[in-house]
Amino acid sequence: MGWNLWDKALVDISLSLPGILIAVLLSVVFEPSFTNVIIVVVFLLWPSYARLVRGETLGLKQQEFVALARIAGCSSLTIMLRHIVPNLVPSILVLATLHVGYVIVLEAALSFLGVGIPPPTPSWGVMVADGRGLIEQAWWVSILPGIAILVTVLSLNILGDWVRDRLDPKLRQL
Fold first, then answer.
1. Rounded distance, CA 58 to CA 56, Å?
2. What share of residues in the chain are helix, strand, coil (percent, to 5)?
3. CA-CA distance, 72 to 53, in Å (whole number)?
4. CB neighbours (10 Å) of residue 55?
5. Does 18 score more than 60 pLDDT?
6. CB atoms within 10 A of CB 158
Protein backbone atom coordinates (compact mmCIF):
# COMPACT_ATOMS: atom_id res chain seq x y z
CA MET A 1 0.00 0.00 0.00
CA GLY A 2 1.95 2.98 -1.27
CA TRP A 3 1.24 6.57 -1.96
CA ASN A 4 -0.40 7.25 -5.24
CA LEU A 5 -0.48 10.48 -7.21
CA TRP A 6 -3.57 11.77 -5.38
CA ASP A 7 -1.98 11.35 -1.95
CA LYS A 8 1.09 13.31 -3.02
CA ALA A 9 -1.05 15.97 -4.68
CA LEU A 10 -3.18 16.36 -1.54
CA VAL A 11 -0.06 16.92 0.59
CA ASP A 12 1.45 19.32 -1.96
CA ILE A 13 -1.78 21.32 -2.19
CA SER A 14 -2.07 21.45 1.60
CA LEU A 15 1.51 22.69 1.91
CA SER A 16 1.04 25.32 -0.79
CA LEU A 17 -1.93 27.01 0.87
CA PRO A 18 -1.18 30.05 3.04
CA GLY A 19 -1.41 28.71 6.58
CA ILE A 20 -2.67 31.77 8.43
CA LEU A 21 -5.41 32.46 5.86
CA ILE A 22 -6.65 28.87 6.04
CA ALA A 23 -6.50 29.04 9.84
CA VAL A 24 -8.54 32.25 9.90
CA LEU A 25 -11.05 30.81 7.40
CA LEU A 26 -11.51 27.60 9.41
CA SER A 27 -11.71 29.53 12.68
CA VAL A 28 -14.39 31.83 11.26
CA VAL A 29 -16.42 28.94 9.83
CA PHE A 30 -16.39 27.19 13.20
CA GLU A 31 -16.99 29.16 16.39
CA PRO A 32 -13.86 30.16 18.31
CA SER A 33 -12.91 27.51 20.86
CA PHE A 34 -9.87 25.64 22.11
CA THR A 35 -10.96 22.47 20.29
CA ASN A 36 -11.36 24.29 16.99
CA VAL A 37 -7.90 25.85 17.34
CA ILE A 38 -6.46 22.35 17.79
CA ILE A 39 -8.34 21.16 14.69
CA VAL A 40 -6.97 24.08 12.69
CA VAL A 41 -3.41 23.39 13.88
CA VAL A 42 -3.68 19.70 13.00
CA PHE A 43 -5.11 20.59 9.59
CA LEU A 44 -2.16 22.88 8.92
CA LEU A 45 0.62 20.63 10.25
CA TRP A 46 -0.26 17.11 9.08
CA PRO A 47 1.18 17.52 5.55
CA SER A 48 4.68 18.29 6.80
CA TYR A 49 4.67 15.19 9.02
CA ALA A 50 3.29 13.06 6.18
CA ARG A 51 5.98 14.29 3.80
CA LEU A 52 8.74 13.81 6.38
CA VAL A 53 7.68 10.26 7.26
CA ARG A 54 7.28 9.30 3.61
CA GLY A 55 10.64 10.71 2.57
CA GLU A 56 12.52 9.23 5.52
CA THR A 57 10.85 5.84 5.02
CA LEU A 58 11.74 5.76 1.33
CA GLY A 59 15.34 6.52 2.25
CA LEU A 60 15.48 3.97 5.06
CA LYS A 61 13.99 1.26 2.84
CA GLN A 62 17.11 1.45 0.69
CA GLN A 63 19.53 1.00 3.60
CA GLU A 64 21.57 -2.17 4.02
CA PHE A 65 20.14 -3.04 7.44
CA VAL A 66 16.66 -3.36 5.91
CA ALA A 67 18.00 -5.61 3.15
CA LEU A 68 19.81 -7.73 5.74
CA ALA A 69 16.66 -8.02 7.85
CA ARG A 70 14.72 -9.08 4.77
CA ILE A 71 17.39 -11.71 3.97
CA ALA A 72 17.22 -12.92 7.60
CA GLY A 73 13.54 -13.67 7.03
CA CYS A 74 11.93 -10.81 8.97
CA SER A 75 8.39 -9.95 7.97
CA SER A 76 7.51 -6.52 6.63
CA LEU A 77 5.78 -5.65 9.91
CA THR A 78 8.86 -6.64 11.92
CA ILE A 79 11.13 -4.61 9.66
CA MET A 80 8.83 -1.63 9.99
CA LEU A 81 8.51 -1.83 13.78
CA ARG A 82 12.11 -2.76 14.65
CA HIS A 83 14.09 -0.93 12.00
CA ILE A 84 12.12 1.80 10.22
CA VAL A 85 10.03 3.36 13.03
CA PRO A 86 12.92 3.72 15.53
CA ASN A 87 14.90 5.54 12.84
CA LEU A 88 11.95 7.86 12.13
CA VAL A 89 11.52 8.97 15.75
CA PRO A 90 14.46 11.43 15.85
CA SER A 91 13.29 13.25 12.72
CA ILE A 92 9.72 13.45 14.01
CA LEU A 93 10.96 14.78 17.38
CA VAL A 94 13.01 17.50 15.69
CA LEU A 95 10.09 18.56 13.50
CA ALA A 96 7.76 18.54 16.51
CA THR A 97 10.06 20.76 18.58
CA LEU A 98 10.37 23.20 15.68
CA HIS A 99 6.60 23.22 15.15
CA VAL A 100 5.85 24.11 18.79
CA GLY A 101 7.01 27.67 18.16
CA TYR A 102 4.92 27.88 15.00
CA VAL A 103 1.86 26.66 16.92
CA ILE A 104 2.38 29.29 19.64
CA VAL A 105 2.60 32.08 17.07
CA LEU A 106 -0.40 30.73 15.15
CA GLU A 107 -2.56 30.50 18.27
CA ALA A 108 -1.50 33.98 19.38
CA ALA A 109 -2.30 35.39 15.92
CA LEU A 110 -5.73 33.73 15.84
CA SER A 111 -6.52 34.91 19.36
CA PHE A 112 -5.30 38.42 18.53
CA LEU A 113 -7.68 38.49 15.55
CA GLY A 114 -10.55 37.26 17.73
CA VAL A 115 -10.99 33.89 16.04
CA GLY A 116 -8.83 31.82 18.38
CA ILE A 117 -9.32 30.87 21.99
CA PRO A 118 -12.19 32.88 23.52
CA PRO A 119 -11.35 35.53 26.20
CA PRO A 120 -12.03 33.80 29.51
CA THR A 121 -9.16 31.43 28.71
CA PRO A 122 -5.75 33.13 29.00
CA SER A 123 -3.89 33.60 25.73
CA TRP A 124 -0.95 35.76 24.75
CA GLY A 125 -2.79 36.86 21.61
CA VAL A 126 -5.76 38.07 23.66
CA MET A 127 -3.38 39.89 26.03
CA VAL A 128 -1.71 41.70 23.13
CA ALA A 129 -5.12 42.56 21.63
CA ASP A 130 -6.41 43.86 24.97
CA GLY A 131 -3.41 46.14 25.30
CA ARG A 132 -3.87 47.80 21.90
CA GLY A 133 -6.14 50.49 23.30
CA LEU A 134 -3.80 51.15 26.22
CA ILE A 135 -0.57 51.43 24.25
CA GLU A 136 -0.09 55.14 25.03
CA GLN A 137 -0.85 54.94 28.77
CA ALA A 138 0.33 51.41 29.63
CA TRP A 139 2.58 50.11 26.84
CA TRP A 140 3.65 47.07 28.87
CA VAL A 141 0.18 45.51 28.63
CA SER A 142 0.84 44.68 24.95
CA ILE A 143 4.62 44.62 24.82
CA LEU A 144 5.29 42.12 27.61
CA PRO A 145 3.10 39.31 26.17
CA GLY A 146 4.72 39.97 22.79
CA ILE A 147 8.17 39.65 24.35
CA ALA A 148 7.04 36.46 26.10
CA ILE A 149 5.98 35.02 22.72
CA LEU A 150 9.32 36.04 21.18
CA VAL A 151 11.46 34.57 23.96
CA THR A 152 9.44 31.34 24.13
CA VAL A 153 9.49 30.73 20.37
CA LEU A 154 13.18 31.59 20.10
CA SER A 155 14.00 29.27 23.00
CA LEU A 156 12.00 26.43 21.46
CA ASN A 157 13.74 26.89 18.11
CA ILE A 158 17.12 26.72 19.84
CA LEU A 159 15.92 23.58 21.64
CA GLY A 160 14.86 22.11 18.29
CA ASP A 161 18.29 22.80 16.82
CA TRP A 162 19.92 21.20 19.86
CA VAL A 163 17.68 18.11 19.56
CA ARG A 164 18.57 17.84 15.88
CA ASP A 165 22.27 18.09 16.66
CA ARG A 166 22.01 15.47 19.43
CA LEU A 167 19.91 12.98 17.46
CA ASP A 168 21.52 13.25 14.01
CA PRO A 169 24.11 10.47 13.74
CA LYS A 170 25.91 12.34 10.93
CA LEU A 171 26.64 15.25 13.28
CA ARG A 172 27.94 13.12 16.17
CA GLN A 173 31.65 13.21 16.76
CA LEU A 174 33.53 9.96 17.18
1. 5
2. 80, 0, 20
3. 25
4. 11
5. yes
6. 12
